[in-house]
Amino acid sequence: MIDAMKVFRLTALAALVLSVGCGSPTSSEPATLTEAIDSLAEQYAQVGAMVGVVRGSETLVLSYGTKRVGANDPPDRHSTFEIGSITKTFTTMLLAQQILEGALEPDETVQPYLPGDRVTLPTREGEEITFLQLATHRTGLPKQVQDSDYPRPPGFDPLNHYAAYTTDHIYDYLTNYVALVFTPGSDWLYSNTGVGLLGHVLGLIDGTSYETLVTREVFDVMGMESSSLFLTDAQLANLALGHSSSRAVTPNYTANDIYQGAGFIKTSLDDMLVYLQAHLGLIATPLNDALEYTRAPRFPVEYWGDSGLDWYTKQLDDGQVVTYKGGRTSGYGAYMGLNEAAQTGTIVLTNHSVAGRAMEFGEAVLKAAARH
Questions:
Q1: 93 three-class SS
Q2: What pLDDT does residue 147 have?
Q3: 50 Cβ partners below 8 Å, 6+ apart?
Q4: What residues of the chain score a pLDDT lower than 70?
Q5: What proportions of the chain, in percent to the nearest 5, are helix, strand and coil?
Q6: Do the Cβ atoms of 255 and 162 come closer than 8 Å?
Q7: Which is nearest to 174 in space by CA: 140, 205, 202, 203?
Q8: What 3-state DSSP class applies to 235?
């Protein structure tokens, strides 16, 4: 199976690598999809970017800019980027796999799977937090520990602001500091803490850790050889350095187990194309049913669209119905979107962090793909 996936990647009908400025954008509609994305990149790729588009059996790969401001070192399909909250879709897929195998029920409460002598999850109106609520941001947990008056731990870094929190810190926070914003299941509030907790609990159930679980059950199974939670020597050798909105180099994100499932995967465009192709059903993996389970819409969220397990489905202004997820860290932006009906999808990875920019770039690429 893995060899077949590698062959698929290597034999895609169109694999082009271009740099910023190769296209010749004009006031009229560009003649080709490549030229259209070139034009978009001039607007959105302020440091460096990799763009991948899948349309059925065809794959287009485009490179823009540089891996570091001031250098002439373009990224390639194997360069390492952070994908931020797209990590959450890997975490919810692990939950989906457990549900489909009958090991967990979606409406089971989470507390019994935690060490009761160390942590007590908050409740409201007698309602306890369930696994499905963690995966769909319906717990009432605030977005992040920094939003509370919980003391900042020693070594806290605002550019790597989860790294200093240990499991004991978050157990203390959940037990003694958190008041749920609403009764679990009654509303929606995006929570990094909630999905981080989900990954942590799944690792506990496995008897290992989130890092071990996602590596064994996803990266290894899907042949995502350039994906990890912590930078390897090989990744460092081809790292697209992260840059803040002011284009200053930023540290790479790290976290202890309690937050890893929320946003800490490092990966390449090549690996993310495998993930996209699997979501589109273009390659067969043992995880295809779990992937489909995570995407299925369950309830509407204002502006975001219909929520699945941390996937969102909405209609773009050109009429396309797309399922998508974005991610952002202190130095990177990322977007993955797919139009299942058209068997089309895109990955955008940037090493420049500006709120909303990778999302806008990705949606613009999907619109261009529909026109060309």
A1: helix
A2: 86
A3: 61, 62, 63, 64, 75, 76, 77, 79, 81, 240, 269, 347, 348, 349
A4: 1-27
A5: 35, 15, 50
A6: yes
A7: 140
A8: helix
Residue 39 has what DSSP assignment?
Answer: H
Q: What is the pLDDT of residue 27?
A: 53
Q: Which two tokens stand for residue 48?
A: 């460096």
Query: pLDDT, tens digit, for every residue of 164-208?
Result: 999 999 999 999 999 999 999 999 999 999 999 999 999 999 999
What's residue 245's pLDDT?
A: 95
CA nearest 353: which of 317, 326, 319?
Answer: 326
* CB distance 247 to 47 below 8 Å: yes
DSSP code, position 165? -
Question: For the segment 4-63, what is each residue's pLDDT rounded down to a tens digit?
Answer: 333 333 333 333 333 333 333 445 788 999 999 999 999 999 999 999 999 999 999 999
Q: How far apart are CA 192 and CA 205, in angstroms?
A: 20
Question: Residue 350 has what pLDDT?
Answer: 98
Alpha-helical regions (H) of the chain: 2-10, 33-44, 87-100, 131-136, 167-176, 192-206, 210-214, 220-222, 233-237, 257-263, 269-279, 288-295, 357-371
Separation between Cα atoms, residue 187 and residue 205, nearest integer Å: 27
For tokens 């907790």, what's the residue? 197
Element (H, E) at 52: strand 48-55
Residue 282 tokens read as: 């273009």
Q: What is the pTM of this model?
A: 0.92
